[in-house]
Amino acid sequence: MGGQRLQLTWQHDPTVYAPPRYRRACGYEAFVPAPLAGRELNLRAGVAGVVSEAEGAIRTLNAAARPALAPLARLLLRTESIASSRVEGMQIGVRELARAEARLEAGGHAGPTAVEIMANIDAMQLAIDEAATAERFRTAEILAIHRRLMEKAPNENVAGRLRAVQNWIGGNDYNPCGADFVPPPAEYIEGLLSDLCDAINDDILPPLVQAALVHAQFETIHPFDDGNGRTGRALIHVILRRRGVAPEYVPPISVALAAARGRYIQGLTAFREDRTDEWIEHFAGAAASAAHLATEYLGAVAGLRDAWRARLATSPNAPRADAAAWAIIDVLPAHPMITAPVAAAVTRRSKPQVYVALKQLQEAGVLLPLVKGRRNQAWEASGLLDLLGGLEAGERPAAAATAPEPT
Description:
Number of helices: 15
CATH class of the largest domain: Mainly Alpha
Structural class: mainly alpha
Strand order of the largest sheet: 3-5-4
Mean pLDDT: 90
Low-confidence stretches: none
Order of helices and strands: EEHHHHHHHHHHHHEHHEEH
CATH topology of the largest domain: Fic-like fold
Number of strands: 5
Strand content: 5-15%
Radius of gyration: 23 Å
Number of domains: 2
CATH architecture of the largest domain: Orthogonal Bundle
């Protein structure tokens, strides 16, 4: 969208240690993007076609939404949050994260990377459930998303606070001279975010174009000391929800962005250099790919759940139709590893009923026990984590998903 380039000087601070070559004052260029609100675009026909296809794919994904499939919505939200963290270099195995999630849900502890990724899931949920439904989106909603994201991070002191100093991307750790990109100075942030919120509240542009521009503008402003990328990708889903394109299911766009991180960075650079069509085309392509992939995986997970039901129905101790075991199968897509307290909470069944159900599901091979003994028990949903691993890697699912035979 273009903007203003400021030629600035970085003053040496003798109170801050730096290697000798970084101690001298030096010049750098900061970029202040042009206002976004009220902008109209004339997209090339080819780009407009990609945008239309992507919005259609997201609407098709959401057309399958039904109350009974609500756990699948959380599965996609979880996948989007994990992929968004992976863009920032936060890596953790699918099973390792699921185990950490089960421990946290049971009141236990997990490693710092897992805790931070789980906070990203919470922030994404806040963005979609609360920020997206606010009558008028404000800077306060952005701060709330960032606060939820960073409140359990090692640098939790920055949570929900706009930066007060210059930051930069690339280069060295001591000054912005030679950085790959320098966002606007801190005194520009409040005004730019106010304009950004006006752009979010507007409906002039097609929803996906609006999401692409808002995300790129936010990443250009870079208003926080940390957590900008994850917060900015949450804003994508705020817009898609507010505009009614994705009322239930989040297309895991970050899966596609993480798979081609270099092209993602190039797209953001194109946006800043006023090559807006180039960025929108890349973003819309990622959105379309994510929506198609999610639709395939929803079918695969639904097929896996049918396989669980069939296995339970043909087990020697098949429960009655109203038993808790069937209710647990319904919620398993949202909880690939589950504990008795979580199962009781999400099914609203009594603990005695849940313990009987968990035993029935284990005997049928639907649930696989993770620990032996009666304390701190947790179970893995058979076959589900293999599917999730493929989705998070951006791979297409196998033609038919079935639960592995019990051993």
